[in-house]
Design a protein that fits this description.
homodimer; 209 residues; mainly alpha; Arc Repressor Mutant, subunit A; 2 domains; two-stranded antiparallel ribbon; DNA-binding
DNA sequence: TCAGACATGTAAGTCGTTACATGATTCA
DNA sequence: TGAATCATGTAACGACTTACATGTCTGA
């Protein structure tokens, strides 16, 4: 059986909002989904062609914003079916492949300072991530109060009588990232305390003997 | 510049414990690192050959446990250098590619029930994950009290005067997974409450008009 | 004797990034 | 005029999984 082809489904999902070009899709992903999804042009354009070949989308020439020709893709009825089938299918659990944890585990037989240095680096990274998240959250909460998508997104997202559902879901996706990041930071504190406590115990044990 | 080749480094890290066969490495990963790392045989065996070709490991024939011939790999001095260089290098932040969040985001313009169903599925998965984690944790905490690795690991891990440092690091890696899973579950609760609250507000607004 | 663990590997295919190639338009 | 943005694509490479192929040894 063929694999999931999540890129295909992600694209179909966005096209179900409104017709877009590959470039638009990339921008939309960068603005809205950056915290949990990414697609490169190297994936995007070939996949769009494939979608047309399969009859899940149609391409037509369009003028961008008075600029050169661009390819605007629309989802077909069949495309909508594929998309909504995918939504119904069971989602595979988040795969776990974490380079930091691998390194950390492998410092187990090295000096403790190595393990701690790794944690501190991780901590710095996650703090930065949290700041970025918090920024986005502020913008979104404001938008939620005004019940419409942020300016940068509104052109791309297409028309909707009431965006407040999409907005809430958007905000919750962001919250997910924030909670994860907070949990990672809390773990860093916990882990550093454990390692320091162990060090102290060892030092005092050595002094005793 | 060439990519990271984390598989290579992971293998070197494990070989730095003691000489092992490809099969041993696979087992060790399955038992100890399963929660944050994985390698398939399709990666493992070719990488081991590559390692020998590069002079980072040596291969010698060995008799398993009275069984057929097996290839036992040992790390070389150069291999140790490559490994410890990798430990020093900056770790790339955890990449974010979460199929659940993608789906969830894309239900924003569907019915709310879709979004909720997705969360509930996620919740079930994470609950199961948490149970598996808790089991492993119990075993590890017991081992930590006895200051030695669990039986299943002790043969593979090789000799060490005192494993309590490795053990603590092992436990902390596990704790990381547990904290993440707990955070995901907490988010599920939070998100479900938000969606329900919004539904109630809508319903009462409709009744008003 | 036969299932299951031990043990090593290859081939095909998917998935995904990066670098490259091209060229138009806009605006400072 | 030249940088930035708009816009579309390909080629090469690397990472990773799955299925396949092969064979041994142990113990119920």
């Amino acid at each position: 059986m063929p694999k999931k082809q999540k890129t295909r489904c992600a694209i179909l999902g966005l096209l179900s909002w409104q017709p877009m070009s590959g470039y638009d899709i990339k921008k939309l992903i960068q603005m809205g989904l950056q915290h949990f999804w990414n697609e490169s042009y190297g994936q995007l354009y070939p996949t769009l062609n494939q979608l047309v070949a399969e009859g899940l989308a149609t391409r037509k020439e369009g003028a961008g914003q008075g600029r050169r020709k661009r390819h605007v893709y629309s989802i077909t009825a069949q495309g909508r079916r594929v998309f909504s089938d995918w939504l119904q299918e069971p989602t595979e659990p988040v795969p776990v492949r974490n380079e930091f944890l691998l390194k950390f585990f492998l410092t187990g037989r090295q000096e403790e300072s190595q393990s701690m240095r790794l944690i501190e680096e991780y901590q710095r990274q996650e703090k930065e991530r949290l700041e970025a998240f918090t920024m986005s959250e502020q913008i979104l909460r404001k938008a939620l109060r005004q019940r419409s998508l942020p300016d940068e997104l509104i052109d791309l997202a297409g028309p909707a009588e009431d965006d407040s559902n999409q907005l809430l879901v958007f905000l919750l996706s962001l919250t997910h990232g924030i909670r994860m990041t907070e949990a990672r930071l809390a773990w860093c504190g916990e882990a550093l305390r454990s390692l320091r406590a162990r060090k102290r115990r060892q030092t005092s044990a050595k002094r005793q003997s």
